[in-house]
Amino acid sequence: MAQGLSIFFPAYNDSGTIASLVITARASAQKLTDDFEILIINDGSADHTAEIADELAHTYPEVRVIHHPVNRGYGGALRSGFSGARKDVVFYTDGDAQYDPAELELLWPKMVDGVDVVNGYKISRSDPMHRIIIGRVYHHTVKILFGLRVRDVDCDFRLIRRSVFERLTLEHNSGVICLELMKKLTDAGCTIAEVPVHHYHRAFGKSQFFNFPRLWHTLQDVLTLWVKLVILGAHRKRTPA
Question: Cα angle at 168 between 165 and 171, to 5 degrees?
């Protein structure tokens, strides 16, 4: 398999977790390859995330930081991470430490010839019950609407060949980018392997997603995306930039 590895963390007000995530990811990456980099995408954080990220980049030569002057949203952070990655395969997970970046070591062996994406899926979701219920409803609904067969559409723990982005372009800045990503990967004919990973309780900060105004906007985004990708198939009618 390709040896170069880019790791990135979208981070928004994650000052309490980002340092430990980067240090853990760096230790795991050193076991897998000599050619790796770690990116922190500071998405306009209002806490000390920016300062901590810069200090990590100063301490570790493998670490780079991309600062967004204002918050662009989760999708905007992912898009910056994918476009900023320089190595052959790209791994990302969230900056809130609900996933353990050391479990990248579980995904890495599955990235063999013929596999384009290794997608994590949660063994068990460690969230309050209302989030678990909403998450399950969302997961099953979008799987049906978008014709997806992966076990976990919204598990943000993925290893992806950078070359797949020659076949697709991501456009959304909101959290539905994960749905957009999985649909476009599927429609591009990408081969997806799946690996179970652990999901942990949030130890710092609070979710940016689970409030009623954001849920309403997410519903609107999902329906707009469904029309665009499923009904119109716009992404299949043009060559990616």
Answer: 105
Number of structural domains in the chain: 1
Parallel, antiparallel or unpaired: strands 89-93 and 117-122? unpaired
Domain assignment present for residue 208? The answer is: yes
Pairing of strands 117-122, 63-68: unpaired
How many Cβ atoms sit within 10 Å of the Cβ of residue 118? 25
By residue range, what is the domain housing residue 10?
5-236
How many Cβ atoms from other residues are within 10 Å of residue 167's Cβ?
16
* pLDDT confidence of residue 1: 47
CATH of the domain at 19: 3.90.550.10
- What is the tens place of the pLDDT at every residue in 97-143? 999 999 999 999 999 999 999 999 999 887 667 777 877 888 889 99
Entry pTM: 0.90
